[in-house]
Amino acid sequence: MLVFAVVATVLFTLTSFFSASLKYKFAVLKGVSITCIYIAIGGCLAFAKNGKNNNLWLGHYFNKDQPVLVTLQENIVAKEKSYKALAKVEAVFSDSVWKKATGDVLLYFKKDSSIPNLNYGSQIIITHHLNKIINSGNPGGFNYAEYCSFQGIYFQGFLKDGDYAILPTTTTDFFASTLINIRTKVLTTLKNNIQNKDELSIAQALLIGYRDELDRDLVRAYSNTGVVHIIAISGLHLGMIYGLILFLFKPFNKYKWSKIIKPIVVIFVLWMFSLIAGMAPSILRSAIMFTVIAIGEAFSKRNNIYNGLAISAIIILVINPFSLWDVGFQLSYSAVLSIVLFSPYIKNWLYFKNKLLRGFWNLNSITLSAQILTLPVVLYHFHQFPILFLVTNILAVPWSGLILYAELFLIVFSWWQPLASLIGKVTEFMIGVMNKFILNIDSLSFAVIENLQITILQATVLFAIIICISYWLIAKKKQMLLTSLAFTIAFFALRSFDFYDKYNQYKLIVYNVPSHTAIDIVEKRGFYFIGDSVMNEEGFLKNFHIKPSRILHRVEAVQALNSIGLNNNFIYSNKKIVAIVNKPINHKLVKKIKVDAIVVTKNPKLYIHQLMEFFDCNTIIFDGSNANYKINYWTKDCDSLNIDYHVCATNGAYVLNL
Fold this sequence. Notes:
Blueprint: H1 2-16, H2 20-25, H3 27-49, E1 68-72, E2 77-78, E3 82-94, E4 97-100, E5 104-110, E6 122-126, E7 131-132, H4 144-149, E8 153-159, E9 164-170, H5 174-193, H6 197-208, H7 216-224, H8 235-249, H9 256-276, H10 281-298, H11 305-319, H12 327-347, H13 355-382, E10 385-386, H14 389-412, H15 417-442, E11 448-449, H16 456-475, H17 478-502, E12 506-510, E13 518-523, E14 526-531, H18 540-553, E15 556-557, E16 565-567, E17 570-572, E18 577-581, E19 593-594, E20 597-600, H19 608-614, E21 615-616, E22 619-622, H20 628-640, E23 644-647, H21 648-651, E24 654-657
Parallel strand pairs: 5-8, 14-15, 18-20, 19-21, 20-22, 22-23
Antiparallel strand pairs: 1-3, 1-6, 2-3, 3-4, 3-5, 6-9, 7-8, 10-11, 12-13, 12-24, 13-14, 16-17, 17-18
Helix pairs in contact: 1-3, 5-6, 6-15, 7-15, 8-9, 8-10, 9-10, 10-11, 11-12, 12-13, 13-14, 13-16, 14-15, 16-17
């Protein structure tokens, strides 16, 4: 960053001494200097935001045996098998004294007969060791450790009774406490008036972005049908609230005081809603843009949407530069920019005299335009494209708007229980209708194209193709058509090279799946699975742990392999032999069996020296189905016998080229 800062300073200083004609001639230098300044500032902000660069960061001097003092930053949330809460580190007990420390940790409290007496601001001393957050390490899988690090979280703890002590002291912030209390009251109101679990979870997500109770299969259905943005608080929700406020103020527009009060109310309501909903990048972007619009209207000034987008993006990135890698940030800005750029042209494709049909088409044009620049982002991150997004958005978006308004009325009239109960039942019915519609669309075999894999380079080239074709169609520049054709050729060349590479792959993949065995033998574009039958069922285990790898390797299930053999727990190719050990070894051989690797799975009762008496091998893989205490014993034996080993639970999946 120092280099960029020096270059920017030199260029900016040089251009300041140029004559007017030279400044015009070398205007590009000033642009380069400003760009370098932005890069340098961005680098400094990223360095400052990275918790590891703080001298007081927990990771610099913490070890697992030291007590840690933390303060809860939120109320505990009930999960399936635990209670979850985010906590801030205050101090670490080291060298017989408490030393100040910084950093955030995720805490999971084991569920038992009673709920821990913990809330926002509670202080506890953790006596059980914290662990660094690590990834599953499966190919193509979600990088959870990176995701947490971008939020300043590097450690997590799984606690049971006796692993922590609750202190009588509390540390709270009035503003944060007020927001949490409001959020809690909203959730309580929804729970008291909406009984069905699925409908309640959608209501919570749609109104304030609370997604902890969402059913995974229901979320997947919303994603597959292209309407997941409905349950991810975004500009759509703030736009609906903004429109409602304008509608309520319409009778008062003739009064002078309305010109002052209306923007104040708009800004206050939108920012309160954004704060309660968690201030995700998409919400922050919308809040800033609507604030700019409201202020501009108060002073009778026209607003430039591009300036509003740029200002909001800069503010978000100043607060947290790592938001640039947030999928929500990327989708939010690409969707809004796409709508602003293309919807006016798409809207002109058709014209209807009928107001209802014209409004119907305008909604379609916005939905279509939003897909243009979000397409590469969706393909890169989610590896799928919803075919029926038009059908679902046309019906689900306005319907979700009615649901949002119904929820707002439910909150407003929550003090009058008979009316609140009635509104709650109506809201529950409306959400049920929407859920049923989404699930029925998702059940169609052609609803979504899945297993689409593109690299970041291919996504970049796809963006270039879209930009060039759009510029050609809008500005009628023939050169852009030729450029787009060149990028298209490059895109298909990259795809062809990738497919050629996949037709020459022969791999053994031992996945890291807690308490389960999952092994793929990859041969060209096919895979043969060895492991627990539950891993073949559609659900979280398959979709989270092994499906991304299969998409990455572009493989489909096959009934038999051609050049890779399987025989009595042995996998062999022309180059490698791998043994799978899933039961005790109670006998010896006259001559050891030479193998390249041994996969120990299913928690067998054995000792490493027994394996070495049976096999001639230098590498042992312990998968996630083995108990931790056994792995600890086995790895100690491997160290003493000078044998290489790989523990999937800590090192991720093991991939061997066959």
